[in-house]
Amino acid sequence: MAAVFGVLCAVAMIWAAVKYFAIRSALLDKLPLQFRDELSSRYAIPIYALEPSTPLPLQADYVTLMAVGSVAMICFALACLLAGQMAGALLAGLGSVAVIASTIKSWWTYRDNCIGRSTAIGPDEV
């Protein structure tokens, strides 16, 4: 059973990595020049992915990426637990709690951006 959760974790992480690089390539041109290199963009993507100016489909992809990352961490924790690696299960469990909290925060930001766009009054509606 641990192998099943390990495979699920690997599939989720591969999908998340592919989706992350797609989001990164879509945002790279919109980042300020100082954040366009490999190292800096890694830290800037989570910030700029949920900016109100970022297109909503791209924000939705980012929130989905975070949710899949949460599932992957939970699967990894379960695989460690079922394999008898209690230290790994504990660390992965704590990591999954942190990723889930970050996912919820990202979803709230995305939801606020959706609400903000639907209630915004344009200059032609005044």
**Main β sheet profile:** none
Count of DSSP strands: 0
State the helical fraction. over 70%
Unreliable spans? none
Q: What is the SS-derived class? A: mainly alpha
Cα-atom radius of gyration: 18 Å
Which whole number gives the mean pLDDT?
89
What is the end-to-end distance?
61 Å
Beta strand %: under 5%
If you had to describe this structure to a student in words, what would you say it looks like?
With 126 residues, this protein is an all-alpha fold. Helix content is 78%, strand content 0%. It has four helices and no strands. The radius of gyration is 18 Å and the shape is elongated.
What would you say about this model in short?
The protein has 4 helices and no strands. With 126 residues, the protein is mainly α. Helix 3 runs antiparallel to helix 4 (86-119).
Relevant terms:
126 residues, mainly alpha, 4 helices, 0% strand, elongated
Give the arrangement of secondary structure elements.
Layout: H1 2-27, H2 38-48, H3 56-82, H4 86-119
Helix pairs in contact: 1-3, 3-4
